Amino acid sequence: MVKLNRHGWGLQEMILLSSILLAFLLIAFFMISRLYDNLSGIETTKEKESYTYEDVIDTLEEAALRYYDEYYEKGEEVVITSDRLRKHGYVSLSELKPKDEKSACSGYVEVKNKEAKAYIRCSNYESNGYEE
User: How far, in Å, CA of 117 to CA of 22, rounded?
Assistant: First the structure.
């Protein structure tokens, strides 16, 4: 049973409540920093260090097929952009950035009959068949 007095909180209560408040503040800071990193395009997870143009194309094709299975009916012919795949979390910004590029590539994937064909454009490279 807690013995109450008229002198306010004791040192133990103050330390306990301060440590709880500090823990919540640390959690809030961590969550806000993760949200900021995700919004600014900085990847927080460990990822492959260097991608080639073919890796980017393969990644886009795989991501587009997963996206297609989730959002479209079989038999539809669609074009899915790399921006849409990024927005929905199917690819990350770093997966679209080859090792020799300063920025991420953009592109699209044509999906026909469960077959995906990706086309990319980078500052130093453009895949054959890429159309604006």
Answer: 51
Q: Is 103 left (phi over 0), alpha (psi -120 to 50) or beta?
A: beta
Specify the length of the chain in residues: 132
CB-based burial, 46-73: b 16+ in 10 Å, e otherwise = eeeeebebeebbebbbebbbebbeeeee
Reported as a single tens digit per residue, the pLDDT across 28-60 is: 999 888 887 777 655 544 455 567 889 999 999
Note whether 56 and 47 are within 8 A (CB): no
Tokens of 55: 């890796």
For the entire predicted model, the pTM comes to 0.61
Cβ-count burial of 111 within 10 angstroms (0-12 exposed, 13-18 middle, 19+ buried)?
buried
Mean pLDDT of the chain: 84
Per DSSP, what are the bridge partners of residue 109?
80, 118
